[in-house]
Amino acid sequence: MSTRRKKTTQPNPRGSKAAHPAPDAFDERLARHHDELRWLYMELYGNGDMFAELIHTMRYYYDERSKALRALDAKREAEGAWYRDQKMLGMQMYIDNFAGTIKGVEEKLPYLERCNVTCIHLMPFLDTPLDKSRSDGGYAVSDFRRVRPDLGTMDDLAHLAATCHEHGISLCMDFVMNHTSEDHEWARRARAGEGEYMSRYFFEANPAVIERYSRDVPQVFPTTAPGHFTYLPELGQSVMTQFYPYQWDLNYRNPRVFNEMMYNFLFLANQGMDIIRLDAVPYIWKELGTNCRNLPQVHTIVRMMRMIGEVVCPGIALLGEVVMAPVEVVPYFGTPEKPECHMLYNVTTMATTWHTVATRDTRLLRSQLGAVCSLPASYTFLNYLRCHDDIGWGLDYPLLASWGQREVEHKRFLNDYFLGWAPGSSSRGALYNADPVTGDARFCGTTASMCGIEAAGFEGDAAKMDVAIAQDLMLHAYMLTQSGLPIIYSGDEVAQVNDYSYVEDPERADDSRYIHRGRFPWELTERIDEEGSVQQRIFDGLQLLERVRREDPVFSAGARVWPKDYSDPAILWIVREVDGETLHAVFNFSDQPKTVWMPEPAEYTDLVAGTNEEVATVDLPAWGFTWLKHIW
């Protein structure tokens, strides 16, 4: 049964509120949050009229929320932390690359169900400039209420969401809060000199102020988009553009910006979105005299957003993109009493994982996992090996320095390794934002290419392919062992390799991230049933791992998890324990076979092989792993 929303017009925020004679779910939820929400809003803006407008419009979007979505809200409220269910498995994809259009994605749901996917992360699909050189891969949004025409319509999106819900699949989307495209209506009216819209951005004519920002604020893309402001000759002023010149930073010191962006958020939630990814969260608030990163006002905004969602659409979850050091990431969870984001990306662990692949040394990864596992159980991370973005080497360099590794030289080694230039490397990829002055750079490539599948296939080396496939599956098993929401990048399930054709497209040639944003190779799905093919070995291997994770209680969200010390630095040992059952997940990050001694000889169940036997030692091949469960 379709739950497509009826079309409505935007409410008049200054209109009178309709009468509601009896308290309903909205009133009850608002009563729980009203005082804190008002206190935070007034602390930030001191504007009672704008707060009253916010509450009025929240009511409007609650009333507009479909019966099906309200029922889902109630179900998820009763369940609590639905996104932590061990059956959750995400897949991230670009709509056009995967299936052409939103309707195409809906047609491909049987394939996604075969992949065990329960959450689809649709990469940016809102309207953006047709010129790809000004779209930033869809993150330069020109209209928050309109789908990119070549992908479909809002009705298509709502229909996809409704169909997904019928199949037990949730949808995740990106909400770009920090900036708009220069083609957005607000920006066009600001460029025309309308003061109300200029106040929604940061315009500056004083060179001294611009110089001070440039001195205090780190650059996001110092090589491809240097500077913090873009000069507009028609106005004789500059506008703040911390990411790219065509992306104008929004001024959240203006309550009109906050309110309107919250209305956009609620509108999108009402299309059936389940997880809203908050893009570039740490950058939202700008303040002269600071580095404009992770300011206290950012946390106020995210906390208010969490409460607004819990009042209007409590079935949705906020996923924060915070690409910062671990000490700066954790605060975005808020506190158990005053939570902010429901989930955060496990960025540092992802980067440290690839560091471990290159160095064959798990000590830094053990330290990172130990820190993550020590956090409150309610803090949920999204775990992944690869995504749409580059890999930045934001590692714990003070700890590495204590082991004699220097930051600049180590970053150079990592990039050389994954380019395939270092001895012992079969990886392939490309650098991103390489800085010739500092020697710093980030890295791009698909999981399969970074594991050596591309190189082995090109060389026709069967032995090298065996090692590459083992490494690929071992890394996925390690990712699935962690607590949180695991997500696979579309194409990884069929070992999709790098797409170098982007260099032939003038609109994409300067952005090497397109190397892992190639079209989904549907022809490879025809080989997943071909015994012995790379696609069959990867696909079936992932199927087995996903089934075990989905069904065995040791992978439940309530399990205690910690990394175990072991004498061999090439061995990563993760323990999961729940209700008298203990999982020993042991991974060999080296090219050499290893023999691992269990804590004590006992009967274990090999969850991958499906066998039960007395085990004292385990032989792990190069890049091998084991999942052994012991029941006390």
TrEMBL record:
Superkingdom as given in the UniProt entry: Bacteria
Positions of region (Disordered): 1-25
Pfam families on file: Alpha-amylase
Molecular function via GO: amylosucrase activity
Glycosyl hydrolase family 13 catalytic domain sequence ranges: 92-537
GO annotation (BP), single: carbohydrate metabolic process
Protein name as it appears in the record: Amylosucrase
Organism listed in the record: [Collinsella] massiliensis
Lineage: Bacteria, Bacillati, Actinomycetota, Coriobacteriia, Coriobacteriales
